[in-house]
Design brief:
single chain; alpha+beta; 4-stranded antiparallel sheet; 4 helices; 8 strands; 17% strand
Length: 199
């Protein structure tokens, strides 16, 4: 580390400090020397004064303009939480949304049929459980495990159904691409549907 620091200091001295010292020494000799007339001395002083004005007096911009990419937060991206067909557009582009506002409703006929069948299985399991408890309470535990399993499957399907409603996670202005062509289109889970652009 010490050798590296010495090499860095020597490089700075050789490339910056020594040339600057030579230039300042030459300037001091020419300004003080009797061999230099009044006109060259005025030219040198004017150049030095102009350089000083440019560096220390003229206002220079304190900012830099560069090209960039606007990167929205994840809460600003509207994604399909569940695959399905666009059934109803609840909000059009340029609408100001708040968290929880519904933007689009999807429909999945297969999921609806599966949910109806699971509701029927859960109801049947509940009836068997109630009947077993009345007839033989000890056997009710076996039907109770079956009922809990069916209720868990029903809750999972109901949670999938709730994701068919695409809702805004943040506050901002809605941007939908070709919102008039959305009804009837199929979207896969995770597809980007639009953006909620914050202020």
């Amino acid at each position: 580390f010490a050798v590296g620091m010495l090499i860095a200091l020597w490089s700075l001295a050789a490339s910056i400090a020594m040339p600057m010292w030579r230039a300042l020494s030459w300037l001091a000799r020419n300004l003080n020397g009797s061999a230099v007339g009044g006109r060259p001395r005025r030219v040198i002083l004017t150049l030095v004064a102009g350089l000083g004005l440019f560096l220390f007096v003229l206002p220079l911009p304190h900012h830099t303009q560069v090209d960039g990419v606007l990167w929205l937060p994840d809460s600003a991206v509207l994604r399909a939480g569940q695959s399905g067909f666009a059934e109803r557009v609840a909000a059009v582009s340029d609408t100001w949304l708040r968290p929880g506002d519904t933007v689009l409703e999807l429909a999945d006929p297969g999921l609806a049929a599966e949910l109806a069948a699971q509701r029927a299985r859960t109801t049947a399991a509940l009836v068997r459980y109630d009947a077993a408890r009345l007839e033989e309470p000890a056997a009710g535990e076996r039907f109770g495990a079956e009922l809990r399993r069916e209720q868990k499957a029903l809750a999972h399907l109901a949670e999938r159904e709730s994701r068919l409603a695409v809702k805004s996670a943040g506050e901002g202005r809605l941007w939908l691409s070709q919102s008039e062509d959305l009804p009837g289109r199929h979207f896969g889970q995770g597809d980007v549907l639009g953006y909620v652009i914050p202020s």
